[in-house]
Recover the amino acids of this structure.
């Protein structure tokens, strides 16, 4: 059952990516195609959940409207002052909280609205800071497994959502540095918490596990901004990590997977909710302190491809310099030999010219 749900989600996610690519390219926005990945994946995931569910209208249309508001917030975020940028996600978060659904209490919806607001702002910051790394597309499919395994035996909506988000790999493998965009990340967060709210069954510890399952997507921005406050006014040269991109991505995926499984197994499945929450808070504090080690900022990294490119450019420049130096040296030698030969011919002309002037008439004719 869960394998079929995952496969259906994967299929819907692939169709969503294809449809999004066609619409984006038809609109002539080829260069900005990556920014809509999250929007299409989130929409396709909710459609897949509705398709696989035996409950009529499991995903109300209001949820899609809320995702639209989150997407608009992501598009408006760069146009707002930095302190007010997170406020762009407030309308979408409020819309998620106002969606009525049987079996979900009002307090749970309010908590989900607050979590959507905070997580969308943090993940948009993460995506912007790692725009050239593609980290969001690598890490989010790992977090999407939380709604699937948050309950013993798994949940069908969770596995469908995990399958839809796993289709991101279709875009990541050929283009490892593709972007999900601020609007796309907000939509993914909205869909993530909506599915999580359905399977959380009004248990606060499961909502905490959902949030912890996002891992470095929300912890790295906190760590980075706290570090920026600590070093404000201090001049320091950022260190460069000389590891390959594959090593960095593998390390980040390992840390994200460890956080996800800890949040699910220790927190969501724990019978002592208070103790589990205390342990989870301690783990999250440690993970926040280590976030920049697992997910180094782009300014601290020097990718292997860029190093090869710089070495190639330096070799090309040195070759051009050597060729130019040889050309200049040859040109100087040619000019020097030309001057010497010109001086020799000029002295000969002066000697012959003096003898010639003594034997010529005034009109320039030679004597007979």
């Amino acid at each position: 059952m869960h394998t079929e749900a995952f496969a259906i989600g994967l299929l819907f996610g692939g169709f969503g990516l294809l449809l999004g690519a066609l619409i984006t390219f038809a609109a002539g926005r080829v260069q900005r195609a990556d920014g809509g990945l999250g929007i299409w994946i989130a929409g396709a995931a909710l459609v897949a959940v509705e398709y696989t569910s035996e409950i009529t209208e499991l995903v109300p249309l209001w949820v899609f409207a809320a995702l639209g508001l989150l997407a608009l917030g992501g598009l408006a975020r760069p146009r707002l002052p930095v302190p007010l940028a997170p406020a762009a996600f407030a309308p979408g978060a409020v819309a998620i909280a106002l969606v009525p659904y049987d079996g979900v209490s009002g307090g749970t919806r309010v908590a989900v609205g607050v979590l959507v607001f905070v997580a969308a702002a943090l993940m948009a910051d993460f995506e912007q800071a790692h725009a050239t790394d593609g980290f969001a597309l690598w890490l989010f499919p790992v977090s999407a497994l939380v709604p699937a395994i948050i309950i013993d035996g798994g949940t069908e909506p969770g596995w469908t959502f995990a399958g839809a988000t796993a289709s991101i790999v279709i875009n990541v493998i050929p283009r490892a540095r593709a972007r999900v965009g601020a609007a796309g990340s907000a939509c993914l967060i909205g869909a993530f918490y909506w599915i999580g709210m359905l399977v959380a069954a009004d248990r606060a510890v499961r909502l905490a596990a959902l949030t912890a399952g996002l891992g470095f997507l929300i912890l790295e921005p906190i760590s980075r901004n706290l570090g920026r406050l600590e070093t404000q006014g201090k001049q320091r040269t950022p260190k460069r990590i000389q590891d390959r991109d594959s090593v960095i991505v593998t390390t980040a995926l390992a840390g994200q997977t460890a956080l996800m499984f800890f949040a699910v197994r220790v927190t969501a499945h724990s019978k002592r909710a208070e103790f589990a929450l205390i342990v989870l808070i301690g783990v999250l504090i440690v993970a926040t302190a280590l976030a920049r080690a697992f997910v180094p900022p782009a300014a601290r990294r020097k990718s292997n491809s860029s190093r090869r490119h710089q070495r190639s450019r330096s070799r090309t420049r040195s070759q051009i310099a050597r060729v130019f130096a040889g050309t200049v040296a040859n040109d100087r030698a040619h000019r020097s030999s030309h001057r010497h030969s010109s001086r020799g011919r000029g002295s000969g002309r002066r000697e012959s010219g003096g003898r010639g002037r003594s034997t010529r008439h005034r009109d320039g004719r030679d004597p007979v």
Summary: Residues 2-230+239-306 form one domain. The chain has a mean pLDDT of 76.
